[in-house]
Structure formats: C-alpha cells, structure tokens
Amino acid sequence: MFGMKKYLLITLALGGLSLTTVGIANARPHGSHMQKMLFKDLDLSEEQRAELKEMRQRKKEYRKDGKKEGRKDWMVEFINGDLSRNSLHDDMDQNFEKMHAFHKENLSEMFDFIDALEGEQRAQFLENIDDLKEKMKQKRSRADERREKRERTKSSFIEKLFSDIQLTSKQKRQVENIREMQMERKGDRKAFPPKRFVVLEEYASGSQSRTQILRDFNRAGQRKIQHKHEVTDLWLNLISSLDEEQKDQLVHNQEELREKRKNRKEKRKARKKERRERKERLDSERDSRE
Questions:
Q1: Distances in whole angstroms, Cα of residue 93 to Cα of each of 3, 89, 180, 290
Q2: Which residues are CB-contacts of 22 (< 8 A; sequence separation ≥ 6)?
Q3: CA-CA distance, 134 to 223, in Å (whole number)?
Q4: Among 12, 208, 219, 242, which has the minimal tally of Cβ within 10 Å of its Cβ?
Q5: What is the pLDDT of residues 42-92, one digit of tens each?
Q6: What local confidence, expressed as pLDDT, does residue 62 receive?
Q7: Residues 215-218: contacts with CB within 8 Å, 24+ apart?
C-alpha cells in the first residue's frame, strides 16, 4: 500500500488536478513573497499587519490540518473492494464543502481588509495588483516554455499510469475521454489573469459587489465539484473494466509514480534549503562589511 497527498481520492488519478474550490480566495498563492508584493508601499498600521498575520496563520493551520485528512490509497481500496463508488463520492462532497467554506470565509476576510483600506492605500493596492499581474504574466510565459519542453520529451501522467498495461479498444477510448476532460479543466485553470486577482481588483475598484462575487464563487465551486464527480465516474468505470493482471500492473505503476514524486519533493526541499542558507550567508557577509 502507498500513501498519497491530501484529497488524493481523485488527485493522482486526474494527473495533478487538486480538489479545491476556485482559487480566487487565495490572497497569497506563492507564499509570503506574493503577499509582500500585494501589500507593498501601503503603509499598513500595526493593526492591519496583525490582521494579515492572523489570516496567514489560519490558512497555514488549515493546510496543515488538511494534510492529515482525506482518504488514502483510494484506487487500491476500490480495486480490493474496500471502497464503494458511493463512499468515494460522499468523501469528495464532504472535503469539498469543508474547503469551499474555508475559502469563502477567507475571501470575505480579504474583502473586510480591503474595506478598511483608506483612499491612498486602496489606490496603491490596485497598482500593486497590476504590477503583480505583469510579473505573473512574465513568469507564466517562462513556465509555459519549460512545460512545453518537458511535454516534448516526457510521457504524460496517464501514459505512465498505464505503462505496460495492454488496454482493449474500449478501454483506450475510456482513457481518451478522461484525457479530454482533464485537458478541458486544464485549459480553464490556465486562464490569465488569475481569477483571484480579477476578483480582488473588481472588489477594490467597486466594479463588483461582495454579493455578486460570492454568488459567482458558489456557482463556480458547484461547477467544479460536478466536473470532479463526472471525471471520477469515468475513472471508476475504467478501473472496473480492468482484469486482475491489469489491476496489479496499475497498482505497481502507481507505487512507482508515488516514489518518484516523493524523491522529487525531497530534492526540491533540499534545493530550497540550500538557497535559503546561501541567502542567509550572503546577508550575513553584507551586514559584516557594513
């Protein structure tokens, strides 16, 4: 048996799609650096800084708790008959409701924070969003180039998952249907500028009300979870059609993918630690010279 990431009841099978609500609630998708850019030159009061810190802490605790939850090894459990289709869908709904409620509350808190911004602060906030969108556009362009290069040289997730499995013509069509739905969602996620910036900008500028945004937020969330259920059923139908030999190979392939993912994560963590230590060393040397 092998463990998987948070909410991996469909994440691994969907090739990296995570079961999250629309990303507009996340005010700092790239960490504290992102938030520094978003609130740069706003001359925040101590109270405002404390409020941001509390929001960061609540989000940190939520992510930490989320890693401990979610069904593990869902595909193996389903293959072994320990997990039913209905139970899997019920878990998805429960996880979605929890995430949706948290992100909705987080979004409302961001709106409350924006409401408290004074005239010059709000103008600077809008300017920071413009700057951030431009920086992200440049970063997105470089990332797309790297992604295209990887896709030319590497097999897709689905190809790796079904490596060495002789699929029937019907099963191949099922895989292709899954791939098409996956690409459809992938295209939506690539929308630019990111929805979270559009929403914050619209609210701060007064072009959209809180009621309108939260209504759209709920609708988008329902569309997303409905799509997740549809894709999950496609996966379950495909898995149900596999014979015992195919299922054994599928589990083996999944274990290999999980181990490779674990190794990549450890390498990224080591590189991040090395960069942090190098930065601290350079900062210390600069301070000593001054």
A1: 21, 6, 23, 57
A2: 103, 195, 217, 220, 221, 224
A3: 29
A4: 219
A5: 888 999 989 988 888 888 888 777 655 544 578 888 888 888 999 999 999
A6: 83
A7: 217/21, 217/22, 217/24, 217/25, 217/103, 217/104, 217/107, 218/100, 218/104
- What is the C-alpha to C-alpha distance for residues 74 and 79, in angstroms, rounded to an integer? 8
Residues 6+ apart with CB under 8 A from 149: none
Cis peptide before 29 (omega within 30 of 0): no
Residue 239 CA to residue 253 CA, distance in Å, equals 14
Q: At 117, phi and psi to the nearest 5?
A: -70, 135
Distance CA 167, CA 179 (A): 15
Quote the CA–CA distance of 193 and 201 in Å, as a whole number. Answer: 11
Return the minimum-mean-pLDDT range out of 32-46, 79-93, 136-150, 254-268: 136-150
* Dihedral sign (CA 126, 131, 134, 138): negative
